């Protein structure tokens, strides 16, 4: 990666998940109980829950841990009893704020900056909305300047977290004093549907809740802890596939459609885009891939010729947290950074990539800069 004079870097990362953990085996059993009158759907759901490579996820909604007969989100629930969009948004407003604050505090601490030095706040979410929004609430909760520039990015899908990182890099590159706080909060499980349709059961198998934040600014120099310097960012849109990934507001939550052809499309489409971007450069060593699903990671590993080690961070996040929409890429970058620190790895170039409706991809070049210090810090997951 060509290093710019500005040396804008991802200085700190923080993550937070709700207190309620979903064990995949138990979730599959609850769903099986709910689908006992729909044997075809039951068999399909059992298979997809087993194959999706998720072991645990987190939810802000304790009702999802109840037996199927007591859960209003379960397939077969009478329509009048299913939570409305307004009810789900009330839960989102209550639960999203503490998760976002917890992740943001950790990111600021990890970056070693004062809250008063944050110049911009970018908040990201596609699973809920309210006003005044999270961006304004963070100001008082974190002790930010009342004059901080606030930029909400709403309803852009899973790729929005990386889009926010790319935007932050551009902001920081334009000003040596800029310190940008990005906060992504996604409560995906609030939108589980009480449906027996395959597309709804598929979405129910791997989405989870969580928040992630980062601080982007100018690198602290040679003495800083191992971090990712940020290079050129890039967007790619293939509008011919706009119908393959659809996310719409319904009367009872947001309705998601994910085509089973998405992994194949990404596996065929992305290598050409990346090769055009690299323009003959050697393929980078590091890959931070948004695990939108096991099939996406498999398709990119195969089509790009990546090793198991190069996709290990993405697979670990999918296994332990599921798909957290826009927040997922920061969980992956945190996992990758921790692994590199533990390995006392040398400097290495890489690419972070995430996908969203459109069909769109967001990409950014990263460079791991190892620390001179041998001191290691643990993963900073917090429970709010």
Molecular structure report:
Helices cover 35% and strands 25% of the residues. The chain contains ten helices and 14 strands. The model is unreliable at 1-5 and 374-384 (pLDDT under 50). With 384 residues, it is an alpha/beta fold. Helix 1 packs antiparallel against helix 2, helix 3 packs across helix 4 and helix 9 (312-321) crosses helix 10. The strands form three sheets. Strands 1, 4, 5, 6, 7, 8, 11, 12, 13 and 14 form a ten-stranded mixed sheet that branches. It has helices spanning 24-34, 39-51, 85-111, 134-142, 160-173, 198-204, 262-278, 294-304, 312-321, 328-342, and strands at 8-17, 20-23, 56-59, 120-125, 149-154, 180-187, 209-218, 227-237, 245-250, 253-258, 286-289, 348-356, 360-369, 381-383.
Summarize the structure.
The protein is α/β, with parallel strands linked by helices and 384 residues long.
Mind describing the biggest β-sheet? Answer: 10 strands, mixed
Got a strand count?
Answer: 14
Q: How do the SSEs run, as a string of H and E?
A: EEHHEHEHEHEHEEEEHEHHHEEE
Percent strand equals 25-35%
The number of helical runs is 10
Distance between the termini: 37 Å
Keywords:
384 residues; alpha/beta; ten-stranded mixed beta sheet; 35% helix; globular; disordered N terminus
């Amino acid at each position: 990666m060509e290093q710019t004079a500005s040396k804008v870097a991802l200085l700190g990362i923080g993550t937070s998940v709700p207190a309620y953990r979903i064990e995949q085996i138990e979730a599959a059993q609850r769903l099986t109980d709910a689908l006992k009158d729909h044997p075809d759907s039951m068999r399909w759901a059992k298979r997809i829950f087993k194959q999706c490579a998720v072991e645990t996820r987190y939810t802000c909604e304790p009702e999802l841990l109840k037996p199927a007969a007591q859960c209003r989100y379960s397939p077969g629930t009478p329509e009048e009893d299913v939570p409305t969009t307004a009810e789900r948004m009330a839960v989102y407003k209550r639960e999203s704020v503490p998760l976002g604050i917890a992740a943001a505090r950790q990111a600021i601490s990890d970056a070693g900056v004062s809250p008063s030095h944050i110049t911009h706040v970018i908040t990201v979410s596609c699973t809920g909305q309210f006003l005044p929004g999270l961006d304004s609430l963070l100001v008082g909760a974190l002790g930010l300047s009342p004059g901080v520039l606030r930029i909400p990015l709403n309803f852009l899908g899973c790729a929005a977290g990386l889009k926010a990182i790319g935007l932050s890099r551009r902001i920081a590159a334009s000003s040596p004093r800029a310190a940008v706080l990005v906060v992504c909060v996604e409560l995906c499980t609030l939108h589980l549907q009480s449906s027996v349709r395959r597309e709804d059961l598929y979405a129910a198998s791997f989405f989870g809740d969580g928040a992630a934040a980062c601080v982007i600014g100018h690198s602290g120099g040679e003495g800083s802890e191992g971090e990712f310097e940020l290079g050129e960012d890039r967007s790619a849109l293939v509008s011919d596939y706009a119908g393959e990934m659809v996310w719409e507001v319904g009367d009872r939550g947001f309705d998601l459609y994910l085509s089973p052809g998405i992994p194949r499309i990404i596996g065929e489409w992305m290598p050409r885009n990346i090769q055009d971007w690299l323009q003959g450069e050697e393929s980078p060593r590091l890959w931070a891939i948004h695990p939108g699903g096991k099939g996406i990671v498999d398709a990119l590993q195969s089509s790009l010729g990546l090793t198991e080690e190069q996709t290990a961070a993405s697979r670990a996040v999918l296994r332990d947290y599921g798909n957290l929409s826009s927040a997922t890429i920061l969980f992956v970058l945190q996992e990758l950074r921790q692994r590199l620190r533990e390995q006392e790895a040398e400097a290495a170039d890489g690419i972070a990539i995430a996908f969203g409706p459109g069909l769109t991809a967001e990409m950014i070049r990263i460079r791991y800069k190892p620390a001179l210090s041998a001191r290691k810090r643990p993963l900073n997951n917090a429970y709010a």
